[in-house]
Structure to design on (130 residues):
């Protein structure tokens, strides 16, 4: 049983390290692209930069939550630790939720394919892309 818990702990740690690596690499790659953009001072380039960082944070937070869940539920499942995990998951889920709204421009339960009909097609129009 000890070996099983050590393996699970190593897997959870690997997933958490992967989450941190995703955040750091996403930030570095997005920053490099922004700084090497020929017109990085433009508003559009800045918005792409913000969205790239937010996407890296969302994906990294998902991995960190998964690592916490594995570690807490399987390895250390006392009531206090589960309650602490619940609070951590709520905070991280709230961050992911708000980042999703920032990046996508709509609530997660809204289908982006149908948002264009609600605003007269402006959202998905070619003018918006320029």
């Amino acid at each position: 049983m000890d070996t099983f818990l050590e393996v699970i702990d190593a897997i959870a740690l690997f997933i958490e390290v992967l989450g941190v690596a995703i955040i750091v690499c996403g930030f570095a790659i997005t920053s490099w692209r922004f700084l090497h953009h020929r017109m990085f001072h433009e508003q559009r380039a800045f918005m792409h930069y913000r969205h790239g960082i937010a996407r890296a944070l969302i994906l990294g937070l998902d991995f960190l939550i998964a690592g916490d869940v594995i570690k807490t539920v399987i390895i250390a499942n006392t009531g206090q630790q589960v309650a602490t995990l619940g609070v951590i998951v709520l905070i991280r889920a709230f961050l992911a939720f708000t980042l999703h709204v920032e990046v996508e421009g709509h609530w997660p339960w809204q289908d982006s394919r149908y948002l264009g009909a609600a605003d007269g097609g402006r959202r998905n129009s070619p003018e918006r892309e320029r």
